[in-house]
Every structure is written in C-alpha cells, then in structure tokens.
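G., the chain you wanted modeled:
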Amino acid sequence: MINKTILFLLLIVTVAGCGSKSQLTENKFYLPPATTYNSVAIDSVKLFYREAGDKSKPTIVLLHGYPSSSHSYRNLIPMLATRYHVIATDNLGSGYSTHLDPSKTKYTFDLLADYTQKLIDTLQIKNYVMYMQDFGAPVGYRMMMQDPKRIDALIVQNANTYLDGLTPQRQAFFRTAQTDTSQEKHDFLYSLTSKDAIINKQYLFDLDSTNLNIQSPDAWTHDLAFLAFKNDREIQVQLFQDYNTNLIRYPEWQKMLKENQPKTLIVWGKKDLKFNYKGAEAYLRDLPKAELHLLDAGHFAAEEKTREIAQYILEFLDKNNIK
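Predicted structure as tokens:
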C-alpha cells in the first residue's frame, strides 16, 4: 500500500513537472527579444541606435522628437520586436549620439536627416516602416523625399505636416524663431531648454488628473542629462530657429504623400496642445485610406499609451501584409 502511494505521488509530480516545462516552453515565444545598444561611426561622428528583433523580419525605424532620443521608445521597442526588426535612432546632437559643437556646426533638419539616412544605409536597411513623432516628421519626410518607395508604411504619432495642426500663435512662434535674430529672442528660445521648461512646458504641459501619473519621470530625467551643458542647449535652440523651414516645405511633403499614397497609420494624442488633433485629421485630405486613431493622451502619446499604440501598429501592419 505504501509503495502504491509513493508511486502515485511520484506520478503526480512527474506529470506536474512535465506540464510546467511545457508551459515554460510555450511561454518563451511570447517573451520579447532583448534590446541592444549600438553605435556606428559615420564621417567624424558616432550615431547611436537601439535595436531589437529578428533581422530577417521587416524593419520599423523609430524617429524621435524634441527634447528626447530613442529613449522615448524604450517601452514600445520590445512590444514591436516580438514580430519585427526595430531600430530607434538618436539624432545627431541628441541622446548618446555625438554632440558636435554648435559654434562650429550649424544644426538644421537637413543635417539631422542626412546623418539619419547615412545610419540607415550603413545598416543596409533598404525598405522599412517609418514611425515619426514631433521632430521625427521633418527628419523622416526629408528622408522619404529622396526615395518614397523605400518606405513600406508610415506611422504618424503627433508628427505634423499640415498648418491645420498649428494654431496661428504656434505658427508665429516658429516663424519668428527663424526671422528674429535678436539676443532677446535667442535668450527666450534658450529658456525653453531649461529644466523647468522641459518638465512643465513639454512633458506635463498637456496632462491632467486622468493621465498625470502615467507619464514616467524617467523620460525628462533622461532628456535633461543630455541638456546639462550650454552647448547641448544651443543645439536645440538652433533647431528651433530652423523649424520654420519645415512649415515652408509642408506643401511639397503633402504633394509627395498624395502622389505616393503610402500605407499610413495615424495614432495621435488628442490632448496635444502643441500639435493639435486637427493636424492628424488633415492627413486624410491627401491620404483618404489612412487609418486614424485619436488617443486619450498628449504630445508624448507613446509614453502614455504604449500598449495601445503597439496594438494598433501590429494590427495595421498585419492586415497590410507587412510581416
């Protein structure tokens, strides 16, 4: 009787153990691949990028906004990398990429786009899905203008290319940032790169009690580490001064979108007060087949609604046979 009891217990343990092993084996396929942290030397600079996922899969390139870096996508990357190859870049002068002295190098969006394109080419990425947020739009559209057919799909997240998305006051801000060369104007733009401005006029600017505790302080803490010195802040001032060149190019970018009709997903934080949701809806004039989702989020929607955005992206790419 004792021997039978022992055998019965051993059988239960063995079956349970097999079940656990089987479950672990199955679950491992749902774990995201590790993100790696890399840099390449191009010309005289180092360009940093995060990478994850199977290189044999379609590539998604994530282009960040102001005042951030690829760090913006630290949570989104592993969600997308379960099915795609993901690259998130740091602009020249941002994050871990080289910060060239702005007294010797003039920072423009042409310069950022040129180096980002060189990075993509160096990595031998021919075609890819482009995700753009904020500054990512003027960088991305400059790249796309060179060869629209390299872009398999667009993912637009609070990335403006229509005046509809900018209030008259906001348009005037960008215009005068370019045309007013006074020291007073420079000092005002420089003040926008301060700790208080980054936290309260960027990250917390369009949040309320419903989403305030969703915004991780890691975001602005990381950004401020790369805005610690005068030269770092001057880089961003120069980009503010150059931003009106983007508004001037909006019509040619719109024309390019209308002519090429890229597969487009628009996921836009509706609470964004800087690039308002009318800019999202304006895309439909030129891209009537685009998929639009207005989210209960602000300008940094990928920080607030990471899972929702990842779900929209994965579903959109799947039904468009980009897999």
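Residues 4-26 have pLDDT under 50 and may be disordered.

Shout if anything looks off.
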